[in-house]
Amino acid sequence: MHPFPGDMENALTGSQSSHASLRDVHSINATQLMARIESYEGRDKKGISDVRRTFCLFVTFDLLFVTLLWIIELNVNGGIENTLEKEVVQYDYYSSYFDIFLLAVFRFKVLILAYAVCRLRHWWAIALTTAVTSAFLLAKVILSKLFSQGAFGYVLPIISFILAWIETWFLDFKVLPQEAEEENRLLIVQDASERAALIPAGLSDGQFYSPPESEAGSDEQAEEKQDSEKALLEL
């Protein structure tokens, strides 16, 4: 017994809708993947990540803050011109703050060159600047006579020491891990997009068509009905 025309029409409609839904899912996934890839590529085109830019700004703040404190110290101790000549021209390791300023300039040049210009993704540059800063400040605090020169004898070494270690923490725990995570995400999205490209999108409707199933026992019921009709006619 052949299936009814209505059942076949419903089956064809269902197969077409399933085909359309599959194409929609494929197009949506491909669109989302391409959007993510373009967003990550846009970040790469900017040349420097947001978190790395923040780190470079903090390094600049380090230099400016130490410079400001040193200028205040020059002005407090007898005027900028006289104190500047005393600390720079007649430099004395045991009493001058000029070397602490030069230490901030050293950190700024090395870190900006390494992480802004060369865009390094390693910690060796920050390790170098922090090690040099820590060793120099510890030696100066132990050997010099800064503590006898007022509050700046405490403030400048402590501020320089703290800023150097904050830069180390920020790079090691924020900049490098976040950039590595973004790079891994980009690789995952690219791999997923390559796999999605392998899925055929232009399949015909006939490839998804399955003939409608007949109802169970319909043929047997038809034969039994015909036999009963024949028996009634014979009677």
From TrEMBL:
<dbReference type="GO" id="GO:0015485">
    <property type="term" value="F:cholesterol binding"/>
</dbReference>
<keyword id="KW-0472">Membrane</keyword>
<feature type="domain" description="MENTAL">
    <location>
        <begin position="48"/>
        <end position="218"/>
    </location>
</feature>
<feature type="compositionally biased region" description="Basic and acidic residues">
    <location>
        <begin position="223"/>
        <end position="235"/>
    </location>
</feature>
<dbReference type="InterPro" id="IPR051869">
    <property type="entry name" value="STARD3"/>
</dbReference>
<dbReference type="GO" id="GO:0005789">
    <property type="term" value="C:endoplasmic reticulum membrane"/>
</dbReference>
<dbReference type="GO" id="GO:0042803">
    <property type="term" value="F:protein homodimerization activity"/>
</dbReference>
<keyword id="KW-1133">Transmembrane helix</keyword>
<feature type="transmembrane region" description="Helical">
    <location>
        <begin position="96"/>
        <end position="116"/>
    </location>
</feature>
<feature type="transmembrane region" description="Helical">
    <location>
        <begin position="55"/>
        <end position="76"/>
    </location>
</feature>
<dbReference type="GO" id="GO:0140284">
    <property type="term" value="C:endoplasmic reticulum-endosome membrane contact site"/>
</dbReference>
<dbReference type="InterPro" id="IPR019498">
    <property type="entry name" value="MENTAL"/>
</dbReference>
<dbReference type="GO" id="GO:0031902">
    <property type="term" value="C:late endosome membrane"/>
</dbReference>
<feature type="region of interest" description="Disordered">
    <location>
        <begin position="203"/>
        <end position="235"/>
    </location>
</feature>
<comment type="similarity">
    <text>Belongs to the STARD3 family.</text>
</comment>
<dbReference type="GO" id="GO:0005765">
    <property type="term" value="C:lysosomal membrane"/>
</dbReference>
<feature type="transmembrane region" description="Helical">
    <location>
        <begin position="123"/>
        <end position="143"/>
    </location>
</feature>
<feature type="transmembrane region" description="Helical">
    <location>
        <begin position="149"/>
        <end position="166"/>
    </location>
</feature>
<dbReference type="GO" id="GO:0099044">
    <property type="term" value="P:vesicle tethering to endoplasmic reticulum"/>
</dbReference>
<feature type="region of interest" description="Disordered">
    <location>
        <begin position="1"/>
        <end position="20"/>
    </location>
</feature>
<protein>
    <submittedName>
        <fullName>STARD3 N-terminal like</fullName>
    </submittedName>
</protein>
<dbReference type="GO" id="GO:0030301">
    <property type="term" value="P:cholesterol transport"/>
</dbReference>
<keyword id="KW-0812">Transmembrane</keyword>
<dbReference type="Pfam" id="PF10457">
    <property type="entry name" value="MENTAL"/>
</dbReference>
